[in-house]
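User: tokens in, sequence out, please.
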């Protein structure tokens, strides 16, 4: 089989997985060894949910690199921070705990803790994070809220949440990867190689194992950030094999029904679809 035929077969396989479900699935996958790229609605804006936090992390690291933020500065967990929060563990903890900004970033990424997200964003501004995304080329990403309102309806509009695209998330992940040893790539991100290495380590420490990781061998290394929204589930990451980055993958499901025709919760099938797409890449690449 020629390379072109293999690529066409792979594209057909991925599209078939997406076509099997009644909801929208947008994705971009890239073989990081060959450059082979397959997309589906990858430039269409879609709710970002917590995948937005990767760009928040990088904007904070840029501010630290410029001396505007101190990663060692202590932040007190105040009672007010737990209100209107639906993810993470800090909301269940006793207020008064003091952690450094660095750990707030880790909590935001590793546990997707929105108390930690508030801690980080209160030291930036939405405008700053949004401008950061535009400056590095994430033209389809729009940061609109500190924390998404809990009362959102499943059919909420895009203007009510932060939005992104699969291609934007892939761009950011590949820049972070390139910046592990490339000062120019780190400079494009507005930070340093050392801070970009911290960012990649933090992405690798993600504890949630559904989505991209769910159908891969248990010890597979994945640097990723997942998301849970009212309209769907999403995940974006870099998958490693034998200590080398194998493929990048960004998947966003949308218009996911609350219940499938057989009574299965829609989010479960959305996550299963993400897992199947990732598994197909693992098997083919």
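Assistant: Sequence out:
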């Amino acid at each position: 089989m020629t390379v072109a035929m293999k690529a066409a077969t792979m594209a057909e396989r991925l599209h078939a997985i997406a076509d099997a479900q009644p909801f929208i699935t947008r994705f971009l996958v890239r073989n990081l060894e060959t450059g082979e790229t397959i997309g589906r609605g990858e430039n269409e804006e879609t709710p970002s949910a917590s995948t937005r936090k990767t760009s928040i992390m990088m904007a904070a690291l840029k501010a630290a690199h410029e001396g505007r933020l101190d990663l060692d500065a202590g932040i007190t967990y105040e009672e007010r921070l737990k209100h209107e929060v639906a993810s993470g563990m800090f909301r269940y903890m006793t207020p008064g705990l003091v952690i450094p900004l660095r750990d707030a970033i880790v909590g935001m990424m590793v546990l997707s803790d929105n108390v930690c997200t508030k801690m980080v964003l209160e030291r930036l501004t939405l405008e700053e994070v949004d401008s950061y995304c535009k400056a590095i080329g994430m033209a389809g990403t729009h940061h609109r809220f500190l924390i998404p309102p809990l009362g959102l309806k499943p059919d909420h509009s895009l203007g009510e949440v932060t939005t992104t695209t699969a291609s934007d998330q892939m761009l950011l992940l590949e820049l972070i990867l390139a910046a592990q040893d490339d000062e120019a790539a780190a400079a494009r991100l507005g930070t340093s190689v050392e801070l970009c290495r911290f960012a990649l380590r933090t992405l690798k420490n993600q504890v949630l194992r559904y989505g991209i990781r769910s159908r891969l061998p248990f010890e597979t290394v994945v640097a990723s950030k997942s998301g849970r929204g009212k309209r769907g589930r999403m995940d974006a990451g870099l998958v490693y094999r034998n200590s080398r980055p194998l493929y990048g993958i960004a998947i966003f499901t949308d218009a996911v029904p609350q219940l499938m025709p057989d009574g299965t919760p829609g989010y479960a099938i959305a996550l299963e679809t993400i897992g199947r797409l990732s598994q197909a890449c693992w098997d083919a690449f």
